[in-house]
Fold this sequence. Notes:
alpha+beta; six-stranded antiparallel sheet; six-stranded parallel sheet; 20% helix; single chain; globular
Amino acid sequence: MLEATPLTDGWILRHSDGTADALPAEVPGCVHTDLLAAGLIPDPFLGRNEAEVAWVGRREWTYERQLDAGSAQEQTDLVFEGLDTAAEILLDGQLLGRVRNMHRSYRFDVTGLQGRLTVRFASAYTEAEAVRGRLGERPGAYAEPYQYVRKMACSFGWDWGPTLVTAGIWRPVRLEHWSTARIARVRPLVTVEEGTGRIELHVDVERTRVEAELVVEARVGAARARADVDGAQGVVRLEVADPELWWPRGYGEQALYDVELMLLHGDEALDVWRRRIGFRSLELDSSADAYGTGFTLVVNGERLFARGVNWIPDDVFPSRITRERYRRRLGQAAEAGVDLVRVWGGGIYESEDFYTACDELGLLVWQDFPFACAAYPEEQPLRGEVEAEARENVVRLMPHPSLVLWNGNNENLWGFRDWDWERRLAGESWGEGYYLGLLPRVVAELDPTRPYAAGSPWSGSWRHHPNDPAHGTHHSWDVWNRSDYADYRLHVPRFVAEFGWQAPPAYATLRRALPGEELAAGSPGMLHHQKAEDGNGKLRRGLERHFAVSEGDFDRWHYLTQVNQARAVAAGIEHWRSHWPLCAGTVVWQLNDCWPVTSWAAIDGDGREKPLYHELRRLYADRLLTVQERGGGLVVAVVNQAARGWAGEVTLRRMSVDGEVLGGASVGFTAGAREVALVRVPRELEPAGAKEFLVADAQGLRALRFPAPDREIPYPRPEFDVGLVPGGIAVTAHTLVRDLLLQADRLDPDARADRGLVTLLPGERVTIGVSGWRAPDAAAARAALYCVEPAR
């Protein structure tokens, strides 16, 4: 039987020129984390330390340890699951091989060898700049040369991320000892049709004995099957009658089946492959209709409105992301009502822990191939690396039922058309051959059970603009960059794969990341932790459209930017959900951050939930009320994504901001399962002027409609009582209190509130649960409560 020996201990790190003292190295890990552990660099996440450690990414580094590959088995392989990025591997001074791709694994025959194992990393800059020198300049969104090396692009910085160019043995390394043969690859094709689940396991083997007769034997539940291995390949097929189906969260259970495949030589088990799979049917409906070209995911015959978030690497140093951290972050997504996570193309193919958590939580995974916001050369040495990494990762991720879409790239087809790339390229390669040729061919060959999209955004063909909202996927960035979030309501894209609005991280996160700094919107540390072009200017202009606020009042600015972020995302999602099934999904940019930064994230770099996160729980719930404009008047859209129909009454009240009820009515509604019903608001109940607003209530849900920006609304000065209750606080309003927010981290850095923004009418009471608060105090709670106040 194959034996594996992890190689985690005994590593040292030194400059490759040998002049630096050796440091203990953690494997898996990276140079930055080892230098940080040794106290040789400051924490790059704090203050402006990022600039102080820029030299690390420009150096060459060497990892070393002793290796003894002796074994009673016939062959011993040295296996690296991930090397970041350009390196040469030597054993006792003899070259084993050279590598240049962070997204691949590597295997070297070291049978009977021993001595000093050396992994010598070149600077990723050196590698990228050398390739650029051979292949020529290509345009990109950023000046850094990330498109010339197969490495996590956002290591080189992004509009939410630091420039921390890593190197190291970032995934596990081990010795594998084996005899006769081993399983080199298993490609599982899992389908379900007419009540029967089918598993087709395509097995590749590597041999030391060509003449040995080999058999593969597989089992899943009570089903068993065997097949001979013909040369280096075998196929074994199993059937499961009436399998329990795997469903996305909110639609059913996440049934998973253990699959085991043994490689046998006579009665001897040589190797074993184990995974968990799920039975589910999958389709991407991209058919043409009267409105354009759709983009609707269909799982087990059920058409979905995808409630999605974009995912970036959860740490700029990915080796620090543990199984528990993946589970915690993805658990937060599931708790917010999310059912789809898009793994964005400027990051990585995530670890097995990520996809396993998605399988168990019922989170659909949209997987980008790692290409983002740049023209990528298609010549060697990149082309061969791209095909090799695609083949490896498609097969690696195939067992996971959560994986429902392969996507060729992020914004590169759009960039070619709109960002002046075509003129600048002047006929040079830029990646189209990957997205419309190589990658769909690899997916069709290896994983025909899943759909492939050429890019995001992509209209499906060059006959339409790549970002045409009427066709395929759409990225809505003009709103954040140039206008007000109310403009989300001007269009109904078929599928919104990116949109978002910025806000700073939580107060306690800022205090930790900017120690000793007097916080201000434009203070040095705040500006350093704002990576978007004119990011603060866009925040300011976004606020000025709604509020009269001075950036000199940091606490108020901080609160209102959080409010604006939540309201902006709500404006988009409420509008687009109300247009289901014409619009079939929204994917918010973004769920998470990789460090403490002002960004579009719902969960900040320290894992704290912004008000946007809590707003997503409302927006992505199965049932949602929202007031929308239709046909020159107002309607209440009753959005029902639940499996059962929803019937009842909507109670409508036209109110003044002083608390007076000016009119009311109750209107019945019936919304079928997975349907949207529209309830017309009587004309006499539509708010007239800035002093009035509309309240719509139905079975514990509420929608509000304020017809004017806050700076024009004559709010009363908010009055409310605050008291301690078991597990939290209670707030009782005496006036209209709009967008009340408890910033729990101001009470205690470990404290967390169970809700975000809430608007109270006069006489209403809300209980806010607080966990992690070590010294509850009513006065402190009041000081940590913020709400919209009258314009000054």
